[in-house]
Specification:
With 210 residues, this protein is an alpha/beta fold. The chain contains eight helices and five strands. The protein binds thymidine-5'-phosphate.
Length: 210
């Protein structure tokens, strides 16, 4: 029996990580569901090391193509070690960010080209696209205000970018949603955490028993 691969996308401060924490608690209390919660870049040893290299605030000289390749490399290793084995044994994989982040951030906001970044990622993922993706839609200004108020979240190199960059990330995501409308479900992330969780669960019930 094959499992499912479900990804969560959105700009900074959209709240996807908080929603995933709530879902994880509920899923852990539900004995009928065998699930894995993970994140990108990271999730396993090698990819967490690549994450440190990419997001280190001191690495201001990093070239955009290098950045795109490092995300793709972290993605490959995480798929091979964590995602593919779980799906093959019938588990549901919930992943905080995946390929759409690269298309929006590196492809569009960094200006490398969505199709160019898609092609290096096609090499990395070798055909494994998510079954379902949630896009957490939020005004970038509201998202940035949320992260500036958060005391638990440590600022990374991409957080140091200005509002214009984050507005481009949002435009990039809109283009990506138009490329994959059958896979991506848009969630209004400006609503309360409880409302967003309910909305996500309603959509999840269409593809898994939950
Ligand atoms: P996080 O804050 O959601 O953990 O993600 C780390 C940062 O990395 C965030 O600013 C988004 C960015 N990112 C990309 O630019 N491209 C990617 O492919 C991924 C997975 C994340």
């Amino acid at each position: 029996m094959k499992g499912k691969f479900i990804t969560f996308e959105g700009p900074e401060g959209a709240g996807k990580t908080s929603v995933l924490e709530v879902l994880m608690k509920e899923v852990n209390n539900n004995n009928n569901m065998d699930a894995v919660f993970t994140r990108e870049p990271g999730g396993i040893r090698i990819s967490e090391k690549i994450r440190e290299v990419i997001l280190n605030k001191e690495h201001t000289e990093m070239d955009s193509r290098t950045e795109a390749l490092l995300y793709a490399a972290a993605r490959r290793q995480h798929l091979v070690e964590r995602v593919i084995p779980a799906i093959e044994t019938g588990q549901i994989v919930f992943c905080d960010r995946f390929i759409d982040s690269s298309l929006a951030y590196q492809g569009y906001a960094r200006g490398l080209g969505i199709n160019e970044v898609l092609s290096i990622n096609e090499f990395a993922i070798n055909g494994l696209m998510p079954d379902l993706t949630f896009y957490f839609k939020i005004d970038p200004k509201v998202g940035l205000q949320r992260i500036s108020k958060s005391s638990v979240r440590e600022k990374n190199r991409l957080d140091l970018e200005d509002l214009t960059f984050h507005q481009k990330v949002q435009e990039g995501y809109e283009k990506v949603i138009n490329m994959f409308p059958e896979r991506i479900v848009v969630i209004d992330a400006e609503k309360s955490l409880e409302e967003v969780v309910e909305e996500v669960k309603k959509e999840l019930k269409k593809v898994i028993s939950f």
